[in-house]
């Protein structure tokens, strides 16, 4: 659709008392001093259609101001436009749109003077009064406001949010699929589909980025765990057999002899008491040693189970990601099957009708014409091939859905198995308890009670032999402590080896994850290059920066217009001069107009900045040119061709 401005009339609109502009659908130039009202002409058309100025502001006044900056009252503010609209090829229609704004003054009861009570706006289409709703509906039926502003304002596209600009560019140029990027780079990205496992690329990146900190966190904890274990390991000296004292067997034999000798000194009835004492002391020593061993075994068991539980959780997370990806893919495939079934029904209906029409004029082909027979045979062959392709595609999609369901079921079974194993191991870890030690207070009290029996007897002096016994016991304890330390050290060595094996495994996992992430980032860069190339090809000689390279090597979405400079460099829109922006804006309007199939009058403000020819575009161009103060009084219009040079 082509919209051209035939005439535009202003009356008491902002600073213009009356101005009649008749380009008759031609491109034209409006000359005037700064502040003479050139931009007001552009504002007037936007106000007429959308109640806004050219910048899109609704809160602006159309009233005329006096020299003191105060509004002049009791004026009619009017804009009238005659548009020519090409509804289809060689079918044109004209329409006159008019909007009138007046002040309402009312005399209240008991007052002799009129008071301002608001404004009243009336709307006309071809001089027929309309309600605002009817007027707006007619305008929006011609063209949407946002689209009109994009196709008539040089700077509008680059004033949009970058997200909206980016979305619009991808809509015009078409997105680049992951499959096309993989195919375009040979073997470089062939393993990506296997890495993605049916997930979308974004989901794959999210999964990898979620896994990496978890693995890295586990990896960071291992050195401190190794250090903690090694610091708790008894020193080598503490694990060596005591030096300078007899062997363990020799000491235990000596202790028995000393105890027997002491018992002999006690004589008669006290020998059985001494035997009780020896038995109780041996029991206390044995129970204490056994308890230390049980505590170490329980702690080691709980630690191993907790580690095994922690290793299962990432596997469950990865399987859940895989299931969600397959579900999303099945939804998409199901929609494709439904659409294919509709296409098949249409193709089958055509096959059943058996009609073979000319593809150009859609008339039935004659039966007695050899060329028509050949064309009929070709049309029937194409129809059969389309039906066969449709059936093959439908079967492939259904097979893929069934395969995904099997994969999802297997993944779900694996999740249940892993969760069962994890819960079992967690329950087992929770059930591990540190055994309580023997009641030493009770045992020692029993020992003292037995010893008291001896004290109640008349006993000989056993101080010397008692001293010897204590020395031997002390030496035996040194052997016991060394043996216990050896056991602790051995358990810690096993634990350190396990931690180092985990460290190596996790390091390999994170290296592989980093390799996959790097491959994905290289893929993104390759896709960015193809995407930017596709977009730039549509808008040449302009190009667009769609991604920013971040400090960490990642990419962030953006959208920045790059304008060619005379030296050949691509300059950001924000740094380009006014003339370059005008040319860039016209190119953007040209491409968008082709995409949407609509052209409309383009107002080019500050057109005096342009020193080169206008590009050849289909839109009507209204140039607004500022001239020196003494050249013109008011506005001067020159209807011109689009290729006119300043």
Q: What characteristics describe this protein?
A:
646 residues, alpha+beta, Rossmann fold, 4-stranded mixed β-sheet, 15 helices, disordered C terminus
Describe this structure in words.
The protein has 15 helices and 13 strands. The strands form three sheets. A six-stranded antiparallel sheet has the order 2-1-4-5-6-7. It is of the alpha+beta class and 646 residues long. Residues 641-646 have low confidence and may be disordered. 58% of the residues lie in helices and 16% in strands. It has a domain at 2-143 and 598-639: Rossmann fold, CATH 3.40.50. Strand 4 (77-88) and strand 5 (91-107) form a beta hairpin. The longest helix is centred in the middle third of the chain and has 83 residues, at 271-353. Helix 8 packs antiparallel against helix 11 (271-353) and helix 11 packs antiparallel against helix 13 (440-455).
Residue-averaged pLDDT, rounded?
A: 85
Q: Quick one: CATH class of one domain?
A: Alpha Beta
List the total number of helices.
Answer: 15
CATH fold topology of one domain? Rossmann fold
Strand content: 15-25%
By CATH, the architecture of one domain is named 3-Layer(aba) Sandwich
Count the beta strands: 13
Helix content: 55-70%
